[in-house]
Amino acid sequence: MKRILYDVVDRLAEEGSPxxxxxxxxxxxxxxxxxxxxxxxxxGGPETQVILPSIDGDFTALCxxxxxxxxxxxxSPDHTKHTLCVTLTSEAYPDLSERNDVIFGIExxxxxxxxxxxxxxxxxxGGQLSTGGNGRIxxxxxxxxxLKKARSLAYGGVGLIEFPGKKYRSDIxxxxxxxxx
Length: 181
Hints:
Elements: H1 2-14, E1 24-30, E2 33-40, H2 45-51, H3 59-67, E3 82-89, H4 106-110, E4 114-118, E5 121-123, E6 129-131, E7 136-144, H5 147-160, H6 174-180
Antiparallel strand pairs: 1-2, 3-7, 4-7, 5-6
């Protein structure tokens, strides 16, 4: 955070363009340390789904203060929770999938204390959720008091959801947890 994110924000301010809003940095952990894969000034689907559950406080007031350039006068929300998101994709990801397979286990996953957000789903004629044309199918978010527990919850939920060709990364959060253990 300090080496990358704060440096970006400080540099923008030095150049006369102070930043107020959201900056999302997508990182990949490498042998040389964290490397930035992407930088967005918005909250996209998976980013929003993993950030908002971790914030205790008035998110609308926080956004209004950012829009007015008054964040320094606003009490930061408590970040008492850790979150981790695992994206389930189709077999064809990152390409679009033409399959329309029924998805099983979403309710069981939600009952196991995870949040499940649709990304590329459709409804079958019988009203069941199925994989849609988007390569990203579902985002499964674990929320807990520690990152290790949030990771365990998320992957537990992932294990309860099934559809043909289901793919996901099994290393999300592992390098961070391993380096702090």
